[in-house]
Design brief:
With 593 residues, the protein is of the alpha+beta class. The chain folds into 2 domains: 221 residues, no CATH class; 306 residues, Beta-galactosidase, Chain A, domain 5. A hairpin with a 2-residue loop joins strand 5 and strand 6. It is 33% helix and 24% strand. The strands form 3 sheets. Strands 5, 6, 8, 9, 10, 11, 12, 13, 14, 15, 16, 17 and 18 form a 13-stranded antiparallel β-sheet that branches. The protein has 13 helices and 20 strands.
Length: 593
């Protein structure tokens, strides 16, 4: 096997491996995990005025036992509350707040359909978590998981202007925990703030002696995130990598995969201390996150924990922030689509949680996303946007790929012309491979042939690969493609383009007949037949024949938007190869245009 054949096989195998794992986002190095409450860090005990925007210490601290949670019975047990759930409705969503713990138990988005396409999307699973928010004092911790909060708000509130809804829960000893929600009418975010007060002045001794002063509030989300997409069997394993929890402390971004939680792997857990940016959970297209707006200019020292319920397969997160009797602990929540531009407006790098691929490809993915959004301002159908971006990306690389194709064609013609002389050399040198290589290089030199020209055709593929990967990530995770029709039978660019259902199920294929991947495979086969391959024989020829089949299986159950891009790219490559191939090659040493 010659060097060109070996290199081509390595490149083909490398491309296959890269594409097979491209949807699996790298997870930052796992740190030591803690499964019990950490002690309140010294920085958390500083007054808010002394907090600074220091670089985060992201090392996970060893678990330390904190003061035990106080029983719901006794002087610090909560007085039983009464009341029904509160439904809050804005122009974008409808949310339900359960008085038990004053927690969000339901969220319905008005802009997006659910998995079946008949109802609106729901992000909160039907799951009652075992954990809840905490208020930590110097000498103990109050658990708010089942605290009976009461409010004077009506049972249904329609938000037309910025509005607050306050809940209160009181202990038998007279300590009042306040939780205030602040809703905005035209955005997916809302604010949550905890404060600690006393029902009467004489509660001072109780608060000071038994519990001490309040130290921090642990504000979290323990319900996970609902599945919002139709399950496609052959896409299920890949889709699982879209479910993850995430956190950003200082400049460091960390992810934890739900598949690790399902497997009981400790890699699903983590604890960090530093300047809090955000923490959340997400599926393929949506997220629930708590964040500190403008946190690059207003530092908030705290602790973030990622974890979850292994039995229920629901990830969770919590953020611990300083709390003083006269200084509430507050944070913002966001339930909604993972839209890059929407998240970027909060000025805390929340857009970095959008799955745009590996770190090194993210700048290209971001550029591709911005270009697509800009084109969409003038072209309302995202299917045509994909067509345009496919053509533009091909035109950008046209000079490079054209030059590579010409080089391969010239090398192929040179080898065909020199074949009699090379056969004579092989016969002359017998089994002496060293002498044969020396004689062959001398022949190339005398004939003015560059032996590296054939490899030039592989260079464009390597240079374009980051763009291919970036577009793959954008098209695979772009929420704007959900339930977006294109033409004919393509009614959802985020799902395979099922033309009809098969009466049986095929391995790796499933039970639907998807037309686009078949057209793509035919285009790939035609393109490989047109591509000049210097000395293409043996293993290389076999790779040429296998590539269309391999791409068919790889893309068969991918989102149709992604297959449209790949099909157009392949067709344009075939046309370019045909155009270059029909032109006569210039003599050796003469430049072509």
């Amino acid at each position: 096997m010659d060097k060109r054949t070996s290199l081509a096989i390595v490149i083909m195998l490398g491309l296959t491996i890269v594409w097979s794992v491209v949807s699996k986002k790298d997870t930052p190095p796992a740190a030591e995990n803690s499964t019990i409450d950490d002690a309140i860090e010294t920085a958390l005990q500083q007054p808010a005025a002394q907090q600074t925007n220091e670089a985060a210490d992201n090392t996970i601290k060893p678990g330390l036992d904190f003061e035990p949670k106080l029983s719901n019975a006794g002087p610090h047990g909560f007085i039983a509350g009464s009341g029904s759930p509160i439904v809050v409705e804005t122009s974008l969503y409808k949310i339900t707040i359960d008085p038990a713990g004053a927690t969000v138990s339901n969220w319905i988005g008005k802009e997006f359909k659910g998995a079946n396409g008949d109802s609106n999307v729901e992000l909160v699973p039907d799951f009652v978590p075992k954990e809840g928010d905490l208020i930590k004092f110097e000498n103990g911790t109050l658990s708010l998981a089942q605290a009976g909060f009461v409010t004077s708000s009506p049972s249904k509130v329609v938000i037309s202007n910025k509005q607050q809804i306050r809940f209160e829960a009181e202990t038998n000893s007279g300590i009042v925990i306040g939780k205030t929600f602040t809703f905005n009418p035209d955005s997916y975010d809302y604010d949550v703030a905890y404060d600690v007060n006393r029902s009467t002045p004489d509660v001072n001794s109780e608060l000071s002696i038994q519990l001490g002063e309040p130290v921090s509030a642990v504000i979290g989300w323990y319900r996970g995130i609902e599945s919002t997409e139709e399950a496609v069997k052959t896409m299920a394993a890949r889709s699982m990598h879209s479910y993850r929890s995430f956190a950003m402390i200082g400049q460091e971004l960390a992810f934890r995969m739900r598949k690790d939680l399902d497997n009981g792997n400790t890699d699903a857990f983590g604890t960090w201390r530093g300047s809090v940016r955000f923490a959340g959970v997400q599926n393929k297209y949506f997220m629930t996150t708590a964040f500190i707006p403008n946190s690059f200019t207003e530092a908030h020292e705290g602790i973030i924990k990622l974890g979850g319920d292994c039995e229920a397969s629901q990830q969770s997160f919590s953020v611990e922030l300083p709390l003083r009797e006269n200084h509430p602990a507050s944070i913002s929540f966001y339930h909604g689509p993972s839209k890059f531009n929407t998240l970027a407006q909060y000025n805390c790098s929340l857009e970095k949680a959008v799955n745009l691929g590996w770190k090194w490809v993210q700048p290209i993915s971001t550029l591709m996303l911005h270009v697509m959004n800009w084109i969409h301002k003038y072209v309302p159908n995202y299917g045509w946007v994909i067509v345009i971006i496919s053509i533009l990306s091909k035109l950008v690389f046209f000079p490079l790929t054209s030059k590579g194709t010409k080089s391969m064609k010239k090398m192929q013609e040179s080898q065909a012309r020199l074949k009699p002389k090379m056969d004579a050399l092989k016969k002359k040198c017998g089994g002496d491979s060293k002498r044969y290589n020396q004689e062959m290089m001398q022949l190339y030199k005398e004939e003015g042939v560059n032996p590296m020209a054939g490899m030039a055709g592989c260079l464009p593929m390597l240079i374009q690969m980051p763009v291919f990967i970036a577009l793959y990530q954008v098209l695979y995770n772009m929420v704007d493609l959900r339930f977006t029709p294109f033409v004919g039978w393509i009614t959802d660019l985020s799902q395979p383009d099922a033309l009809f259902a098969l009466p049986f199920t095929l391995p790796l294929i499933g039970s639907s007949f998807n037309l686009l991947p078949i057209l793509m495979a035919l285009a790939t086969y035609y393109q490989t037949k047109l591509t000049p391959q210097a000395g293409a024989q043996g293993q290389m020829a076999a790779m040429q024949n296998i590539m269309p089949i391999m791409m068919l299986f790889f893309l068969y159950n991918m989102p149709s938007g992604l297959v449209i891009y790949w099909t157009i790219n392949t067709v344009m490559t075939a046309l370019q190869t045909w155009w270059v191939g029909k032109k006569p090659s210039a003599p050796e040493g003469v430049a072509t245009t």
